[in-house]
Amino acid sequence: METTAKLYSLNYSNAKTYLFVLLFVVGNIALPQLCHLVPYGGPTLLPIYFFTLIAGYKYGIRVGILTAILSPIINSLLFGMPLVAELPAILIKSGLLAVAVSIAAHYSKKISFPAILLAILTYQIIGTTIEWTMVGNFYDAAQDFRIGIPGMLIQLFGGYALLKAIAKI
User: Fold this and answer.
1) Helix/strand/coil for 161
2) What's the whole-number average pLDDT of the chain?
């Protein structure tokens, strides 16, 4: 399941980089607010990562990384979620996702369901391992695998669908 698409690698000197970062950060602020209306919506649906996936895959590592860093920090400052204590792990996973999807897009050169799946598994497995070393508790570190599977599926199927919808843009 692959779709030919226009994929970009925007530079920091390009004004479009910051326009897209702004749009994706706003998405990563709005979506978590909606998801937090549902009990355990954040940990279950993992909304803070959704637009980071789109940003990194469609517009490259720079847009992805800026979105990955700014989204959790701004959400934490504005709404107290994620908690400051959770920020390091979320920033690491978010950054890993931006890198993983950027690499997946670079090598696949298409919107590829298997490439997106591999990127999601990569950031989650590496991120969980790093978080485990940080918190010293595998059960806590593996929270995304314990209760966040719906969120990973939304990233996979929703991310693939949105990327296909904006493929020619």
Assistant:
1) helix
2) 96
Judge whether 157 and 53 are in contact, CB under 8 Å: no
The amino acid present at 126, given as its one-letter code, is I
Rounded-to-integer distance, Cα 149 and Cα 77, Å: 27
pLDDT in tens, 47-96: 999 999 999 999 999 999 999 999 999 999 999 999 999 999 999 999 99
Residues 6+ apart with CB under 8 A from 130: 89, 92
- pTM of this structure: 0.95
Euclidean distance between CA atoms 105 and 5, whole angstroms = 10
Q: Which amino acid is at 169?
A: I
Q: Which CATH number fits domain 2-165: 1.10.1760, 2.60.40, 1.10.3820, 1.10.10?
A: 1.10.1760
